[in-house]
Write a structure and sequence with these properties.
The chain has about 700 residues and is of the alpha/beta class. It is built from 6 helices and 31 strands. Among the domains are: about 80 residues, no CATH class; about 100 residues, Alpha-Beta Horseshoe (Leucine-rich repeat, LRR (right-handed beta-alpha superhelix)), CATH 3.80.10; about 160 residues, Alpha-Beta Horseshoe (Leucine-rich repeat, LRR (right-handed beta-alpha superhelix)).
């Protein structure tokens, strides 16, 4: 009895030691069998690619022989594992030979047995690899090894009907993407009929699919199908869908259909895309009571009669129908978005019934020269870009309008906006306006104003726009930006610019709330005002394509919220200041200046490539692969009190030793308690006996089956 108890105590101590060693040395999350299988997949892709590209194919997938072992679950690109079992769940192997292989080469088969070791694989992406077929080393009945696979992406390959028998065995699939292949549906008996759990099927861009193909592919059995994409199949000219009771989204864009008869059984359809069917000239929808989105863009329709039954329609796209010249909408009480861009309409009469309309696109209607909107009380977004309008009178009823696009109206030279109290965004880019004075006075809630590419706009004189946050003035002919833009502070600020060989001065209240400022492609010269560094809420600053000189102000380090900073194509000189505390900066461009010295390479600056610095011959640093001399060594970057890499390692060692000491202390305390108190000792060994007996029972019953 005593020897048995000793053995049990030794076993328990061994378990504690294993746990301790696991904490000290870390847990290697990736399973070795799956790690080996992943390296075999990499070898396969290397073997089918051109010589000389080995280092570019899955470079993060490295083994013990490479001297840089890493965790395949956390460090390998395209691999995602189950957080509990550490088994591979998702593999993304798209376009792994697209760049390196000639598309005119001989046929190539993908070996699916490479994926059998992944017992929990749920998603596999093999798109864009130019495979022509599938094979594996065992019979088709062994394909059940991928029994948990739910998503399979084989798009942009050269697969034909020969892969359908294999796909038909993957009965757990819910999403299958076969777009841009050579599927015909003419050489198959069952098609995909066994995929009864399939919810998403993409057959777009297969060219040779016809109405008969849909029957031979077994679509009638896919009763759980919710999304079906048949777009870009030019030979699909007629429709005749079987009963797909759960289908919610159907894409028939860019097909050759001439009639939409054949949708009567799709009673649960919510989204229907029919764009770019040039031969579809007339409409006559069956009763689709649940249809919410309908895209008829760039068809040949001349009339919109036939929409009367679509009582629940919310989004309607009729853009690009050049022969659609007149409107006369039926009662569509739930319509919220209407796109009439680039049509041939000459009048907007006929919108009176759309009382719930929120978004209206009318851009590109060159023959629509006058406005006169009916009462659209809920309209929030209006696009009138690239029109022939000369005046914006006729917006008075749009009291809830928030976004207004007027860009590209070259004949719109003067402004006189009605009272639009809720307008927040106004785009007047590429118009013919020469002045904005006395035309924006009522827009007290305006936050975004684009005036770019107005070459005749030479002077500014803003009305009181207390909430303006973004102002675009790129490619204008302005020589001065005098005017008051209130920002919340009471003290006026003066900023001096020199442009077109003239000194100009901006006097206005501090733009404290400014979120974006675009002054690109003007003729500003002189130094960048250091006051810009006080715009602490600014997120985007573009001063590119000017004649600015001097150094980059150190005050730019105060722009804590900035995400994009473009100072390219000026005459700036000196060093790039230490801006490594700009933690949100994701776009930085100082190319084509006269900057010199080392480039910051810490924090987010380590993510910028050489395109951000080209055209500066005196710059140096690892980002542009140009060594700095010792005299130009970059100054130490402040890290806010953080330690260097060596200190970090010492801290980790100390942390691990502290964990070890804690575990040892717990074990010694447990031993001392059991040594002193015989009652506790008996209870402890009784508990160990029960645990071991339970383990024995489980092993013999479920593992050894005895």
């Amino acid at each position: 009895m005593e020897s048995t108890s000793c053995i049990k105590f030794s076993l328990m101590s061994l378990i504690w030691i294993i746990v301790l060693m696991n904490e000290i040395h870390g847990y290697k999350a990736c399973l070795e069998t799956e790690r080996t299988a992943l390296l075999e997949i990499k070898s396969f892709f290397v073997s089918i690619s051109d010589i000389g590209y080995d280092d570019y194919i899955l470079p993060s997938w490295v083994g013990e022989d490479d001297g840089m072992p890493s965790d395949c679950c956390d460090d390998w690109e395209g691999v995602m594992c189950n957080a509990t079992t550490q088994r591979v769940m998702q593999l993304s192997l798209d376009y792994k030979r697209f760049i390196y292989f000639d598309s005119t080469s001989a046929s190539l088969l993908i070996n699916m047995s490479l994926f059998h070791p992944f017992e929990e694989l749920q998603s596999l992406e093999l798109d864009g690899n130019w495979f022509t077929g599938i094979y594996e080393k065992r019979a088709y009945d062994s394909f059940g090894s991928l029994k948990q696979l739910k998503t399979l992406n084989l798009a942009f390959n050269f697969f034909n009907d020969s892969i359908l028998p294999y796909l038909n065995t993957l009965t757990s699939l819910t999403t299958l993407i076969l777009s841009a292949n050579k599927i015909e549906g003419s050489r198959t008996k069952q098609g995909l009929a066994n995929l009864r759990y399939l919810q998403v099927l993409d057959l777009s861009g297969n060219d040779n699919i016809t109405s008969g193909s849909l029957t031979r592919l077994g679509l009638a059995n896919l009763t759980n199908l919710q999304v079906l994409d048949l777009s870009y199949n030019q030979n699909l000219t007629t429709l005749g869908f079987t009963d797909l009771p759960n289908l919610k989204t159907l894409d028939l864009g860019s097909c050759g259909i001439t009639t939409i008869q054949g949708l009567a059984n799709l009673t649960n359809l919510q989204v229907l895309y029919l764009s770019d069917n040039q031969n579809l000239t007339t409409l006559g929808f069956a009763d689709l009571p649940n249809l919410k989105t309908l895209d008829l863009g760039s068809c040949g329709i001349t009339t919109i009669q036939g929409l009367a039954n679509l009582r629940n329609l919310q989004v309607l796209d009729l853009s690009g129908n050049q022969n659609l010249t007149t409107l006369g909408f039926a009662d569509l009480p739930n319509l919220k978005t209407l796109d009439l861009g680039s049509c041939g309409i000459t009048t907007i009469q006929g919108l009176a019934n759309l009382t719930n309309l929120q978004v209206l696109y009318l851009s590109g209607n060159q023959n629509l020269t006058t406005l006169g909107f009916a009462d659209l009380p809920n309209l929030k977004t209006l696009d009138l870009g690239s029109y022939g309008i000369t005046t914006i009178q006729g917006l008075a009823n749009l009291t809830n309008l928030q976004v207004l696009y007027l860009s590209g109206n070259q004949n719109l030279t003067t402004l006189g906006l009605a009272d639009l109290p809720n307008l927040k965004t106004l785009d007047l880019g590429s118009c013919g306006i020469t002045t904005i004075q006395a035309g924006l006075a009522n827009l007290t809630n305006l936050q975004v104003l684009y005036l770019s590419d107005n070459q005749n706009l030479t002077t500014l004189g803003f009305a009181d726009l207390p909430n303006l946050k973004t102002l675009g003035l790129g490619y204008c002919g302005i020589t001065t930006i005098q005017g008051e833009l209130h920002g919340g502070l009471d003290q006026p600020v003066g900023v001096e610019f020199v442009t077109k060989y003239r000194y100009e001065f901006f006097i206005g209240l501090n733009l404290d709330d400014m979120a974006g400022l675009d002054l690109s492609s003007n003729e500003f010269s002189g130094e960048i005002p250091w006051e810009i560094g006080h715009l602490q809420h600014i997120r985007a600053l573009n001063l590119s394509n000017n004649l600015l000189s001097g150094t980059i102000p150190e005050s730019f380090s105060n722009l804590k919220m900035i995400e994009s900073l473009d100072l390219s194509r000026n005459k700036l000189s000196g060093r790039i200041p230490q801006l490594t505390e700009l933690n949100f900066l994701s776009n930085f461009n100082v190319s084509y200046n006269n900057l010199s010295g080392p480039i910051p390479d810490k924090e987010q600056f380590a993510t910028f490539d050489d395109s951000s610095y080209k055209g500066n011959s005196a710059l140096c640093g690892s980002m542009i692969k140009r060594k700095c001399s010792s005299a130009l060594a970059p100054p130490a970057t402040p890290t806010g009190g953080g330690e260097d890499e060596g200190d970090s390692v010492i801290d980790m060692v100390a942390l691990r030793w502290s964990f070890g000491a804690s575990y040892v202390s717990v074990i010694l305390g447990l031993l001392a308690a059991l040594w002193i108190n015989s009652y506790w000792r008996r209870l402890w060994f009784y508990f160990i006996d029960r645990c071991i007996d339970t383990c024995y029972y489980w092993l013999f019953k479920y593992v050894f089956h005895r």
